[in-house]
Amino acid sequence: MCRASDCGNAITPGTIGSRVHCPATDCPPLAICVPVRRDRLCPASERGSYRPAEVGRYPMRTLSFSNVLTRTLRVTLMGAVMMTLVPKGATGGLPLFTACMVAGATFLGAARRPPTGQAGHLYGQGLLICLAVAILAACQAVSIPDNPFAHPVWVELRDGLGGEASTKASISIAPGATLIASLSVLLPLIVFLAGVALFDTDRAALALWRFAAGVGFLFAVLGIVELQIAPDRFLFLLPKEYYVGSLTSLLVNRNTAGTLLGVACLTLAALILARRLPGERRTHEATGRARLVMLVAAYGTTLVGLFLTRSRGALLATLIAHALFAILLVRTDVLTEGRRKLALIAACLAALVLVVLAFGAQTIWRMEVQGVDPERLCVYRSTWRAFQDNWIFGTGLGTFTDVFPAYRDPDCVGVRSLWNRAHNTWLEGLMTMGVVFVPLAAFSVVRLTGVFRTGLRTRRRMRPFAAAGAAVLCLVAVHGMVDFSLQIPGLAVYVAIVLAAATTLCLQRA
Length: 510
Fold this sequence. Notes:
Blueprint: E1 2-3, E2 19-20, E3 32-33, E4 42-43, H1 65-85, H2 93-110, H3 117-141, E5 144-145, H4 152-160, E6 168-169, H5 175-198, H6 202-229, E7 233-234, E8 238-239, H7 254-273, H8 285-308, H9 312-331, H10 339-359, H11 361-370, H12 374-389, H13 400-407, H14 425-433, H15 437-458, H16 463-479, H17 489-507
Antiparallel strand pairs: 1-2, 3-4, 5-6, 7-8
Helix pairs in contact: 1-2, 1-5, 1-17, 2-5, 3-5, 5-17, 6-7, 6-8, 6-17, 7-8, 7-9, 7-16, 7-17, 8-10, 9-16, 12-14, 15-16, 15-17, 16-17
């Protein structure tokens, strides 16, 4: 039953305070009419009357095929995110192909009803970026006769064989690797677009945000337990070959794990500072305090996991992102709500300092003793020279391992270390994609920055999520300057769903 106070202004003045029923014209047999503003049920078998002008103001929720399909696709997309994390970040061939097929099917299902408004414009622009990446990868991998942009290695090969080799040549030095690497680039893009299309309401986007925060928290818990019980084992079973004694959880590289935990900290921080959100009922004060304590505890646990990774780059990038997060909130007057909110912020900062002192000693020691890795600077210079020689279309996606030895300086880098990544996402993007990488990356960053700026300006209750989205973008951009974490499909997909949820929360009313 619904009382008149539950149904807003949809009741005539004479029925205020009395029992009311759903209109017969709106409720087919055995249907359930649910007012949008209150989650109370009105059985359709009992008849009443609304004012004619108000009929249809509170739409009926029915278990239609479209609703079932949308919910199924949402769950499938969340499953695709988990699929990319569990098998070492989907760095292998089979996990990557499987995740691409699942995410691709979800993307096609979501494309039946693309978003509208500002989100629709962003969706269309994202499709164009996907198309541009796919076309570039195809052009790099295809072999055509007398290709004027072919890599010089093919000409040298033909000359070495005395002209008997085929005249067909490609831009990429390893066409097969380029096609596989293009999947790693396209996967997070289609996950982002599918997330924007499927989680197109505040309530759905908040559910996706909470899912990302929960995944990050569980990732931290698993890593801490694993580090305490079996520090030399990967997932308690396999011997750990790299980063023994550092938290890696489901991933192999501690820097990638640190980036993921840094993003998770920001998602939890937004939930801590957010006001009562859509879909949440008013709760008793004690219940609200218990929920707040649980979120703060989850944030602290995730922060501890971040320090246990001993990743210098991830730690510095996370601190910079948290500083940006706080600055954006202070500038938009979200935090000026009284002494309780200020006390909460002070308590969080104090907890952060305690965590740094208790668990960050080894990471800080690595910063002081090791400082900047000189070999990494040498790799950057060698990568830049490779870009200068192939600046138009690049050397081909996924070809760093094949191209780098030709530009390696043995006096600077040495001959013993193995470099299969440039440890700089932006430089490697320039080398492998050429100058085309610049407008694609710049447009993506500027466009998302504009989205978060819109959210900070227009969505008062959602400002913590807009600020967190901008901070996440800052975190991965800064860490991408010193490492390759964003090139791991598992992390890239995780960041994509966080940015998708933040985008919807920023543009829902734009």
